[in-house]
Amino acid sequence: MSGASWFADLPKDVLAELLGEDAGYFLRGARLLESGRSEWQDYEVWETPRFGKLFRLDGCFMTSERDEFHYHENLIHVPGVAHPGLRRALLIGGGDGGSAEELLKYPGIERIVIAELDAKVVDIARRYLDAVHHGALDDPRVEIRIGDGMAHVCEHAPATGERYDLIVLDLTDPIGPAEALYTADFFAACKALLAEGGALTLHIGTPVFQPERVRELLARLRRVFARVRPYFLYIPLYGSLWGMACASDTLDPAALDANEVDRRLAERAIRELQHFNGAVHCAQFALPNHLRALLA
């Protein structure tokens, strides 16, 4: 959540972001590397003591060198390890390449389409965020299409008959350019592009500071998909407990136990994970009572 007007008088080396109307957090010692405005949004790249190179859009923290694995590993591997054999994936957003890098760890992956609205995001990633994507943006299995994700899902992909085992909404928050991509109609359009046994995965925000947003997004998903599995983890860069969800008519990542997750990771030679493992996979689906009440 942007807090530009709230934080106008902060020292130049302090980065701050509002998490709600009355709460936020900050980082000190930041050094600006580049800033500007693309056709769609304001962007900034900072060097920070805590997170290394850090990327912001419209005043909101997006990703960083030292923290990205919390978000990208869990967004991708929770549904990925549950699927029997990922081959084709679609990323809506994801121009920083972090999600693509995780998908490329699957031995059977053949094609990843990144539908990124803003070419500047890809440009910034290539010049500053190699530690996030590790060259994934230039892998021959990755196709980057600069343009509207809505048009790709609703027009281009249906016209060409494309189908995907996994669709990842790796988006900014559901405000501004991304707002239309969080509707039930868009979720239904994504569902129509899924291959048999496929799933949609996305982040849904913080239940601590955005409880109504989390509840509403899950309600929209449940209007479209038979199985919607929310899961939660703490993401340091975002300053809060954060929610994600896997939605499918058949795939159920919550049905896997820790041993089975670890067995599949080993069988598929998915290594170099800094956060995700079998125990973490299962723990993220364990909801405390206040979240059970919120999501009921």
UniProtKB/TrEMBL annotation:
UniProt family annotation: Belongs to the spermidine/spermine synthase family.
Function: Catalyzes the irreversible transfer of a propylamine group from the amino donor S-adenosylmethioninamine (decarboxy-AdoMet) to putrescine (1,4-diaminobutane) to yield spermidine.
Coiled coil: none
EC annotation from Swiss-Prot or TrEMBL: 2.5.1.16
Oligomer status and interactors: Homodimer or homotetramer.
Active site: residue positions: D170 (proton acceptor)
Keywords, ordered alphabetically: Polyamine biosynthesis, Spermidine biosynthesis, Transferase
UniProt-annotated binding residues for spermidine: H72, D96
Gene coding for it: speE
A Pfam family assignment: Spermine_synth
GO biological-process terms attached to the record: spermidine biosynthetic process
Molecular function via GO: spermidine synthase activity
Annotated organism of origin: Thauera aminoaromatica
Origin superkingdom: Bacteria
Name assigned to this protein: Polyamine aminopropyltransferase
Gene3D superfamilies linked: Spermidine synthase, tetramerisation domain (2.30.140.10), Vaccinia Virus protein VP39 (3.40.50.150)
PABS domain location: 13-249
Reactions catalysed according to its record: S-adenosyl 3-(methylsulfanyl)propylamine + putrescine = S-methyl-5'-thioadenosine + spermidine + H(+)
Alphabetized NCBIfam families for the sequence: PRK00811.1
Pathway: Amine and polyamine biosynthesis; spermidine biosynthesis; spermidine from putrescine: step 1/1
Residues reported to bind S-methyl-5'-thioadenosine: Q41, E116, D148, G149, P177
